[in-house]
Amino acid sequence: QVQLVESGGGLVQAGGSLRLSCAVSPRIFSIDRMGWYRQAPGKQRELVATITSGGTTNYADSVKGRFTISRDNTKGTAYLQMNSVNTEDTAVYYCNALLGLMNYWGKGTLVTVSS
Q: At CB < 8 A and 24+ separation, what contacts does 15-19 make?
């Protein structure tokens, strides 16, 4: 059973930074794509960023230039570096892993940005 566990969420002031981590267990070296999604209160879950096994990245327009996704294939871990956060970034952030046709999700980590 593949499990994804997010960490690093919490309370941060507007303009600050936060780094989220996503650990996949058991360790899998052939994850096709990993990504971060978020869901704000009263809104649908939306894409934040994705990264392929080859390192190709994709970002939502709202986070371009502020967030950076990365992954460590040797550890089966993905990261989301969040800089210059604002109150609109407040949401539960979910890690996603695509293995072939299987899509896996973590339980999420809450990020709250205070003004």
A: 15/84, 15/85, 15/86, 16/85, 16/113, 17/81, 17/82, 17/83, 17/84, 17/85, 18/82, 18/85, 18/111, 19/79, 19/80, 19/81, 19/82
Chain segment 45-96, per-residue pLDDT in tens = 999 999 999 999 999 999 999 999 999 988 889 999 999 999 999 999 999 9
Token pair belonging to 109: 């980590």
The torsion angles phi and psi of 90, rounded to 5 degrees, stand at: -65, 125
Q: To which residue do tokens 């407040």 refer? A: 90
